[in-house]
């Protein structure tokens, strides 16, 4: 009697177990299918976004004017590199109207023709199809429409040089009719993203919440979800794999114990299983929403990121006039170098939090974005009647923002105070696209920093020209460092009483084959802002040490920058350079200005004491030009004191000048320091310095900066004359 009901219960349990297992498998399959669909859609959307953002460059009067008849290589390289960074592409090709390659870039580096030519050859059918050549095979690429002037764009997935790639092609045509342009075909710009690059896969994995996204082998492991990307002919280009979510597995693990408890719970289990499955689907949807939010949020500060700005700005700019500020923190690189990047990140996060609180308290309708590094963008609604010249409201807004930034932040046991510079633009007065507004605001930001930092400037057309000049100077300086175009001249220093050659100061010079002679007053600050001043200073040190192999040269002075002094391992690096040349540290003197001593005096004193303990001599340069010169003489130990040339200028003409110089000389001697007067250009100045007891003199009167060979000749003549000059001090030095 009981067997039949029991068998019925067992059969019902088995049916329920089978149904549960099938439901789990189906849930796993649906999850894999949905993840694959989202992944394919995300890759396609990224390509379409690339084509959309490429259109302002391809359909442009400026691009057509610079690339059609006689391409401007500097313009092409600069603009292609900038758009590659904006679009996050790996390779860019510029194809001339005759089908030959004009330029190929990978990152910011120019690709050799041997690497670029195979890619161009493989893209030839697509290029021919884009230009509408009837005799060329037209691949089945996705054509995303036409632009003004019958411009065309293509997006295709293919293999280039053995690697899977997503390729965007666009014809370069004018947005308006421009005369004197050659007839079609137009040049073509090609943007290429490697689909198997780790950075691209990490970005997709993070954005789509897919664990372990990677290139799959031919035989995928068990449990992996895969997606095959085909080319236009259907041939596989790339196979991706990831660790698929398994909601069905979790479902079976949670439910099976209840199934075996008894068949009497089958009904309840079925109901509970359906509820759990629905909750799993909802969780997947919630995770998709979280992935979308994470893709538009900066992980460090919690602010909207560049991707969010690119997504939101077009609608905001089209809806109403906007004020856009590019914010750049002043001397933030010093924090990273002095305290480390982790401390710099904490400082940025604290400052971003403070700016967010300030925005919530203000009445302005504004959005704050973090672009990259220490660069932020503020978008503020602007009154429709505000003209581009109305700087007042914008400057008052910046002043309030700056007060929020300048509040002290406790970091590494001390207080850090940041300052900020800004470039401001108004839409539509200064541009209608985000790309144009950012470019103009960036130009205004650099101009604000050049004019003293801690300020904001509204964009003017002249700033664009200055910004282009700065970009050209930056590229030229990097080229000069690579190609060895920087060289060192040496200005001799003589004993004021005996005329003996005592040493020389190393002064870097730059003679560019394209730009001519460039003043150190222009390229030294530029090198500091670019973060390459340490490279320049190391070059000067190496050349000076090489010259000291000549025993006739007593000593050379080398200027020491704050970035060098803060750099870990600088002392070991300097000692290594001297050891390679067999030169003792005592023959090198490092000159520091008061500006080097201002920030973090405890750390600076520790570094300077280390240099002095190693045997290097130290000199305080440009003495008297700052407010704390006397305090620095008491705190730091120097060997020599250099009187700034501004005090020497009126010497021999005004009694007050003699009184000041005499006081400085007596102060130096009282502290046991040798005193050097620089900028000596007249016999009366030299005579007065001798009378006042100055130890060393340096200037155009006694010897201008000279190349290494001239200094060696001067030192040899002094040595032959018993370490004394064979000409009267005050006469022009022999060259």
UniProtKB/TrEMBL annotation:
Ranges where the GGDEF domain occurs = 320-461
* Spans traversing the lipid bilayer: 255-275
Q: Does the keyword Ribosomal protein apply?
A: no
Return the PROSITE patterns for the record. Answer: EAL, GGDEF
Q: Name one Pfam family in it.
A: EAL
Q: Which residues form the EAL domain?
A: 470-719
- InterPro entries given in the database record: Cyclic-di-GMP_PDE-like, EAL_dom, EAL_sf, GGDEF_dom, Nucleotide_cyclase, Rev_trsase/Diguanyl_cyclase
Name the UniProt record assigns to this protein: Diguanylate cyclase (GGDEF)-like protein
Supply the NCBIfam families for this chain: GGDEF
Give the keywords, sorted. Membrane, Transmembrane, Transmembrane helix
Keyword Hydrolase recorded:
no
Q: Which Gene3D superfamilies match?
A: 3.30.70.270, EAL domain
Give one GO term, molecular function aspect: cyclic-guanylate-specific phosphodiesterase activity
Q: Name the source's superkingdom.
A: Bacteria
């Amino acid at each position: 009697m009981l067997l039949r009901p029991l068998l019925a219960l067992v059969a019902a349990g088995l049916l329920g177990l089978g149904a549960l297992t099938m439901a789990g498998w189906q849930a796993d399959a649906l999850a894999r299918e949905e993840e694959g669909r989202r992944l394919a859609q995300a890759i396609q959307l990224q390509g379409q976004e690339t084509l959309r953002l490429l259109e302002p460059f391809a359909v442009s009067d400026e691009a057509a004017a610079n690339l059609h008849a006689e391409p401007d290589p500097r313009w092409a390289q600069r603009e292609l590199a900038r758009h590659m960074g904006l679009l996050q592409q790996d390779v860019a090709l510029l194809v001339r109207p005759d089908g030959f390659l004009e330029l190929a870039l990978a990152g910011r580096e120019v690709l050799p023709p041997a690497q670029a030519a195979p890619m161009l050859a493989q893209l030839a059918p697509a290029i021919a199809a884009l230009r509408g050549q009837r005799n060329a095979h037209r691949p089945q690429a996705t054509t995303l429409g036409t632009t003004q002037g019958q411009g065309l764009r293509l997006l295709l997935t293919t293999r280039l040089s053995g690697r899977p790639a997503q390729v965007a092609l666009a014809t370069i045509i004018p947005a308006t009719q421009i005369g004197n342009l050659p007839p079609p075909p137009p040049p073509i710009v090609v943007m290429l993203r490697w689909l198997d690059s780790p950075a691209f896969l990490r970005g997709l994995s993070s954005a789509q919440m897919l664990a372990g996204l990677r290139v799959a082998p031919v035989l995928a492991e068990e449990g992996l979800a895969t997606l095959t990307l085909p080319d236009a002919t259907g041939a596989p280009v790339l196979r991706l794999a990831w660790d698929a979510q398994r909601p069905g597995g979790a479902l079976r693990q949670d439910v099976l114990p209840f199934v075996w408890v008894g068949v009497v719970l089958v009904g309840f289990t079925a109901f509970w299983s359906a509820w759990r499955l629905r909750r799993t689907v909802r969780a997947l949807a919630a995770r998709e929403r979280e992935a979308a939010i994470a893709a538009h949020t900066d992980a460090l500060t919690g602010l909207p990121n560049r991707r969010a700005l690119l997504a939101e700005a077009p609608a905001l700019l089209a809806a109403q006039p906007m004020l856009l500020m590019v914010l750049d923190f002043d001397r933030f690189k010093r924090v990273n170098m002095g305290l480390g990047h982790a401390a710099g990140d904490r400082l940025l996060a604290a400052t971003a939090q403070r700016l967010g609180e300030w925005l919530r308290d203000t009445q302005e309708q504004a959005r704050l974005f973090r672009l990259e590094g220490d660069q932020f963008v503020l978008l503020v609604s602007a009154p429709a009647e505000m003209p581009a010249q109305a700087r007042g409201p914008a400057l008052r807004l910046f002043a309030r923002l700056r007060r929020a930034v300048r509040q002290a932040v406790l970091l590494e046991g001390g207080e850090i105070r940041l300052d900020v510079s800004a470039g401001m633009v108004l839409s539509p007065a200064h541009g209608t696209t985000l790309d144009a507004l950012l470019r103009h605001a960036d130009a205004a930001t650099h101009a604000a920093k050049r004019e003293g930092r801690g300020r904001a400037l509204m964009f003017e057309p002249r700033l664009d020209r200055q910004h282009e000049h700065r970009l050209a100077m930056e590229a030229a300086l990097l080229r000069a460092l690579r190609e060895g175009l920087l060289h060192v001249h040496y200005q001799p220093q003589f004993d004021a009483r005996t005329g003996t050659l005592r040493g020389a100061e190393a002064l870097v010079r730059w003679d560019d084959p394209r730009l001519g002679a460039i003043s150190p007053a222009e390229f030294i600050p530029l090198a500091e802002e670019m973060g390459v001043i340490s490279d320049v200073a190391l070059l000067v040190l190496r050349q000076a040490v090489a010259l000291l192999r000549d025993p006739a040269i007593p000593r050379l002075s080398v200027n020491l920058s704050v970035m060098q002094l803060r750099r870990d391992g600088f002392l070991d690096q300097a000692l290594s350079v001297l050891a390679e040349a067999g030169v003792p540290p005592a023959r090198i003197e490092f000159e520091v200005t008061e500006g080097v001593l201002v920030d973090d005096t405890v750390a600076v004193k520790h570094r300077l004491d280390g240099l002095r303990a190693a045997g290097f001599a130290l000199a305080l340069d440009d003495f008297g030009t700052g407010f704390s010169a006397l305090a620095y003489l008491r705190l730091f130990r120097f060997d020599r004191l250099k009187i700034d040339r501004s005090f020497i200028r009126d010497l021999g003409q005004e009694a007050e000048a003699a009184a000041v110089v005499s006081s400085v000389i007596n102060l130096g001697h009282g502290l046991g320091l040798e005193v050097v007067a620089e900028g000596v250009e007249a016999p009366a100045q030299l005579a007065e310095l001798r009378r006042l007891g100055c130890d060393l003199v340096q200037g155009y009167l006694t010897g201008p900066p000279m190349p290494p060979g001239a200094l060696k000749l001067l030192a040899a003549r002094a040595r032959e004359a018993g370490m004394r000059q064979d000409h009267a001090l005050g006469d022009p030095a022999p060259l």
